[in-house]
Amino acid sequence: MSTQTPKLKIWTAISVVVGCVIGSGVFVKPGRVLVAAGDSNSALLAWTIGGLISLAGGLTLAEIASRIPKTGGIYVYMEELYGKTWGFVCGWVQSLIYGPALMSALSLYFASLLGQFIGLSPETSIRPIALATLLLLAGVSAYSTAYGAIIQNVTTFIKLIPIILIAAAGMAMGDAPIFDVALSGAVAPTAGMGVAILATLWAYDGWVQVANLAGELENPSKNLPKAIVLGLVGVMAAYLLVNMALFHVVPVQEIATLNEKTAAVAATTLFGTIGGSALALGILVSIFGCLNGNILTMTRVPYAMALRGAFPQAKVFALLHPKLKTPVNSILLKTSIAMLMIVLLNPDRITDLAMFIMYLFYASVFFGIVKTRKTYGKPAKGEYKVPLYPVVPAVACAGSLYICFSMASQQPVDALISVLIALSGVPMYALMNRSKVEAPAVVQVP
Fold this sequence. Notes:
Layout: H1 10-21, H2 25-28, H3 30-37, H4 40-67, H5 74-82, H6 84-118, H7 122-143, H8 145-173, H9 193-204, H10 220-249, H11 252-258, H12 262-298, H13 301-307, H14 314-317, H15 328-344, H16 347-367, H17 369-376, H18 391-410, H19 412-423, H20 425-434
């Protein structure tokens, strides 16, 4: 019997790129990006720059992933490139802020749109719905990874429908100006392009996971970069078309105040009450699926770290439920943190906190390609290597650092909070070492 790992076709890889990236951002961030950028042209430019930064980062990470073929993503790359302390700090941030922030923000966005969809008061319904949705999907993930995967497969297909319909109908039927429209009055811009681009990166986030496909692709040296390029270019095109369609249907001054409700309002304007409700439901399914995917993947980070003895109370968090065979303790930890964020914070601030600190780690990993080539040598002929080296890695590093610098300048308190949370991992790691935390027995990863 052959034991060869099944090889994925390039079209499967492209669909994975699109499925990982497209979630709620294109529906909930247009108003946020527009307010920060100040006018429609700058908003579209921010979406383009965010896509190019993501593309450069994806191409760079693909080479690092091919040279360090270990599971664990950014956490493992940080550990291999910069040592166990900084690897732990990265995983610590993913466990305490990044993962829970994504889960809580998506829950709140879903709740906001669902409350509007069924006519509930946002003042009283958003947080209860967000908490209930989070607990539902976390419960499914804890009960059965397979059931979570089924939800993910179905919602990935459905999420493309509202994007296609809004983009096509909006461009064909709208009559509001798209270009050269500036905000004014109470919604005049105050943040700047850096914060606008940072907001778009929330919509592009997810491409990091694509590098894990390298070992399962046919001819990965050629197909992995092709999948990244074609997938992200397709997503960029979709995002730009959706934003242009929204500008064409809903005046930019209204988009700035509607924020995450813009897509639902545009759908109703284009297709009437029934058609608008159907598209709004599709948008809800897209966000629901994105939340489910983040719960499936992000709740496993403490578990993966605990298996290596690199997490507090490692023996507790490395346990699988004896019957369900899922990392219930890890799921409970991150779900509990996400619930606190839902109660205490607003979604835009949550995502800014999460994206700022993670892009510091992204920049570190992108720069790490220099060390990767020194340690492992240049890729041999036939192996994947980042195109236009060192230009593409430089773009990825510079873009990531620019975003961090811009947010630190415009939102210094949030940036400081993010850094302090990250740095809290340093004494925690030292304490763990002094306590001689040992890795638990290896158990099967779900």
